[in-house]
């Protein structure tokens, strides 16, 4: 089986540890263990006491009942039984695609988005058509184009809502139109939902609440600020959950006792985590807006309080070369847009701590003007 290199991950693997001002990441500033264990106001004492007595066996294979119960609450009407814990959203996407996609299938993937959503189906032998997002349409894809792309043998439509790298949220109305098109050929709709808008979360609609053949993948890595826990999940109907169980036994067994305990702690205190993150996102979005307004060499379609943005750079040379020199000379890390097949753009993860963001943007401005 052949697969393309993962553009963004390969970039971050090489460069992220050398950044002084890392404004490339898409997580809302990660929480420390201290922050996680203080969510219950008890300072972690009871957690460590409980951990002391905990056997490090395989634990709950599909995720603990508490975990499943908490995750099910994120949806309108999902039985906790149909939640399967995975190794991050990466594991969830892989599980769903590996379980369903066969050679010769036709898959339509929003493009660009998270690379798993088109390169795993390709690696499994599917024919993949790209459904392009458009900057002049606020980074929405065109529903008329989906009507042209759909075929009788389309097995799956893959979306990333909200989108990485742009931070654009697809509306409920738009998703309902996608569902109607998918229904016409009985196709699945897989939506990677790791990015939730933090100002008006009610504007977000999960695909599993809209469509019986909808599959939602998600994790605690972005909106919930704990990528280090490595916990994600699939949410689906019960037939799909049974199918995923079969493939899951071959690929992961479980996510780990310690990880599950921490995941439950984060989910049981999700209102506090979301309040913390709403503050960070809205505050930093204001800083980003003000910076763009006074920076003539940058423009942006603003993200919808989602922790990633995609800026357009007024530069003449190669985008990747620009980003490497920006890092080496100014210590500032972006993800170059060519890693999303969109040169002259860059992913700017603005939800780091305020001081890093401010200094990173200042240095980026200096570099843009000295260079061009
Ligand atoms: C859209 C999307 N899905 C999944 C992931 C990976 O998530 P996890 O850390 O939960 O595996 C990322 C990380 O950048 C992402 O942007």
From TrEMBL:
Gene Ontology molecular function, alphabetical: catalytic activity; pyridoxal phosphate binding
SUPFAM superfamilies assigned to the protein according to its UniProt record, in alphabetical order: PLP-dependent transferases
CDD domains: AAT_like
Coiled coil location: none
Highest taxon of the lineage: Bacteria
Domain Aminotransferase class I/classII large: 56-364
InterPro entries: Aminotransferase_I/II_large, PyrdxlP-dep_Trfase, PyrdxlP-dep_Trfase_major, PyrdxlP-dep_Trfase_small
NCBIfam families in the cross-refs: PRK07324.1
Name the UniProt record assigns to this protein: Aminotransferase class I/classII large domain-containing protein
Source species taxonomy: Bacteria, Bacillati, Bacillota, Bacilli, Lactobacillales
């Amino acid at each position: 089986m052949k697969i393309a290199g993962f553009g963004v991950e390969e970039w971050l693997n090489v460069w992220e540890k050398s950044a002084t001002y890392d404004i490339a990441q898409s997580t809302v500033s990660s929480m420390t263990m201290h922050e996680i264990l203080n969510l219950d106001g008890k300072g972690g004492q009871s957690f460590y006491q409980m951990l002391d007595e905990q056997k490090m066996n395989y634990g709950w294979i599909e995720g603990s009942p508490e975990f499943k119960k908490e995750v099910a609450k994120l949806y309108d009407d999902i039985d906790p039984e149909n939640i399967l814990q995975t190794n991050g959203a990466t594991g969830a996407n892989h599980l769903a695609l590996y379980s369903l996609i066969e050679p010769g299938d036709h898959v339509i993937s929003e493009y660009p988005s998270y690379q798993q959503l088109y390169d795993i189906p390709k690696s499994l032998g599917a024919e993949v058509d790209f459904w392009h997002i458009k900057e002049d349409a606020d980074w929405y894809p065109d529903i008329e184009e989906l009507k042209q792309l759909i075929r009788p043998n389309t097995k799956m439509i893959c979306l990333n809502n909200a989108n990485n790298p742009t931070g654009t949220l697809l509306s409920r109305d738009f998703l309902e139109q996608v569902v109607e098109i998918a229904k016409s050929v009985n196709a699945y709709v897989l939506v990677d939902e790791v990015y939730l808008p933090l100002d008006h979360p009610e504007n977000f609609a999960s695909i599993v609440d809209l469509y019986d053949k909808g599959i939602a993948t998600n994790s605690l890595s972005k909106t919930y600020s704990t990528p280090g826990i490595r916990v994600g999940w699939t949410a689906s109907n019960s037939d799909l959950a049974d199918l995923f169980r079969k493939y899951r036994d071959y690929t992961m067994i479980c996510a780990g006792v310690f990880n599950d305990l921490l995941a439950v702690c984060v989910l049981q205190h999700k209102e506090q985590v979301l309040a913390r993150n709403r503050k960070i996102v809205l505050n930093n979005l204001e800083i980003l807006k003000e910076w763009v307004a006074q920076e003539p060499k940058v423009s942006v379609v603003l993200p919808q309080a989602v922790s990633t943005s995609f800026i357009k750079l007024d530069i003449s040379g190669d985008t990747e070369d620009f980003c490497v020199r920006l890092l080496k000379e100014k210590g500032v890390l972006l993800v170059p847009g060519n890693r999303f097949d969109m040169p002259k753009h860059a992913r700017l993860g603005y939800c780091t701590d305020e001081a890093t963001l401010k200094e990173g943007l200042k240095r980026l401005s200096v570099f843009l003007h000295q260079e061009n």
